[in-house]
User: Fold this.
Amino acid sequence: MNPRALLNLLQGNPGIRRLWIAETSSSFGDYFFQIAMMWLIYTRTGSGFATGLMLVVAVLPLVILGPVFGVVADRWNRKRIMQIANFLQALLAACLALALLFGMRILWPLYVITALLETTNVVYSPARAGIFTDLVPPDQLLNANSLFSTSRQGARLVGSVSGGLVMATLGPVPAIGFDALMYLCAAFFITRISYRKPPVLEPDPKNLKLSGWQEFALGWRWLRQHPVILILTTIGMLSNVALGPANVLAPMLIRTTLHSSAAGLGVFDAAIGLGIMVGGLVIGSLSIQRVGLVFCCALSLEGIAMAVVAWAPTLAVADLGNFVFGFGLVSANVPASTMHQRLVPGPMRGRVSSITSMISGFAIPITYGGVGWLGDIVGARGSYAGAALLLGGCMTLGLLVHSLRSLNLARLEPGPPSRPEPGPNYEAQI
Assistant:
C-alpha cells in the first residue's frame, strides 16, 4: 500500500474521503458498543450461551432480510439509504444508553436493541457496497480496500482499548452514548458526499416491473454463473463457524480462564485490530494476483492463531495469538473483496453482495448459540482448539478446489449481468 497513492486517493476524491471519515468514525464507536455489550451480558449472567445469544440476534437480520435490502440498495438512492440507517442507529444507541442510565436491569431490551441496530446495518451495507465501487476507479480498488480495512482496524485498536477502559471505570452508559454520537458524525459526512448513481438499464421493454423476489433471482442466477465466488462464499460460511469462539467466548476466556477485567478484554480485542491493520498494510504493499491461494494460506494462519489462543498460559500470549489471527483475517478478506468488486457489474452489486453475505452468515445464528453452549461445557480453551481444527479443514478444502487455488486476479474481467435491471436512467445528484 503506497502512502502517496493513498494520500492522492483521499485528496483527489472528496466522495471517498468523506465516506472514509464516516466509516472510521462509526467503526470507532461500534467497538465501544461491542465491548460494553459483551462484558455487560457476560458479567450479569456468567453464561457463554447468553453472550452467544446476543450475537445470534445480531446476525439474524442479515440472514432473513439481506436479500430484500440488496434489491432496495440497487433500486433506491444509496446515499439516502446510508443517511437514514446512520440516523436510526444513533437513535437506537441513545435510547439504550438512557435506559441503562435510569437503572434498567432486565436483559431482553439489550437483545432487541442489538437486533434493531443490526437490521439498520443490513440496510446500510448493500448501499455502501454499491456506492463504494461507484466512487473508486477500478484500478484503485485494492488500495482503497486496504485503506478502509486498515482504518477500520485502527478504529478497532483504539476503540476497543478505550471502550474497555471506559467500561471498567465509568460503566456502559458513556460507552454506548459515545457510539450514538459517532453515528451522528458518520451521517453528517455521508450527507456531504456528492454522488450520482450510474445509469441503470431496463430489464425488458415488455416487462418494466419485477417483484423483489424476481430481482433477487437475477442476482442468484448471476452468482450461479460465477462458481468461484460461490465456492469462496461457501468456504467463508464454514470459516464463520470456526470464528464462533473468537466472537462469543472472548469474555469467558478473559474473565474466567485468564482472570482479567473489561480493560483486558479491550486489549485482547484490540490485538485483532492491530493484526488486521498490519496485515492490511502488508497486503496493500504487495501485488496480489493469486487471490485464491492467498485466501487458503490465510485460513491456515487463522487456524494456527486460534491454537495459540487455546493454549495461551497468559493474557499476553493470548493477545499475540489474536494479533496473528487478525493478520490472517485481513490476508483473506482484502484480496477476495477486490475480486468480488472486479467481477460483479455495478447494477448487480447490491443484490449479489446481500446474497453472498446471507450465505456466509447462514450458519452463524446456530453457531453462536452452539458455541456459547459448548463453552459452558468444555470451556473457552476447548472451543478455541476445535475452531483451530475446523479452520485447518477449510484451508484443505480450498486447496483441493483447482479453480479456487489457481484463481488469478490479473485475469479477471467484469462480466455483464445476467439481465439488466429496472429503474430510472439517472438519479439527481444530491
